[in-house]
Amino acid sequence: xxxPEIDFPVGPAxxxxxxxxxxxxxxxxxxxxxAVEVHYVGVEYDTGAEFDSSWSRxxxxxxxxxxxxxxxxxxxxxxRVGGRRQLTIPPELAYGPAGSANRLSGKTLIFVIDLLDVG
Length: 119
Hints:
Blueprint: E1 18-23, E2 35-44, E3 50-53, H1 54-57, E4 61-64, H2 70-75, E5 84-89, E6 109-118
Antiparallel strand pairs: 1-5, 2-3, 2-4, 2-6, 5-6
C-alpha cells in the first residue's frame, strides 16, 4: 500500500458526512465500539493542505473508535480490513465550529483511511 493522493474537491463543502469506498476490503469488519489500526492522510477541504498523515510519520496508528471525532465514529464502522475509504467531514462532526480551541475548528476535512486491522 502507498500513501493516497487526495484529489482537490470541486464545489461547496458538504454539510453532512460523505463516505466513499475507494477500495473494498475483504477482511474483518470495523464495529462501532471496536478498535482499529489505520494508515490515514487528512487534508482541509477548502485549501487541500495536508494537516496530518500517519504515512508521513512512517507508522500506522491504533485506537478505539469511541475516542475519535464523530465523523470517524460514524464513517469507519462497516469498513473491512484491506479497504480504503474517503470521509468528507463537516465541522460539526470534526472539531466543531470556528472559534473552538482546535486549529481545525470550523473546517470541513477530508480523510483517506486504510483499514489495516480491527480489535
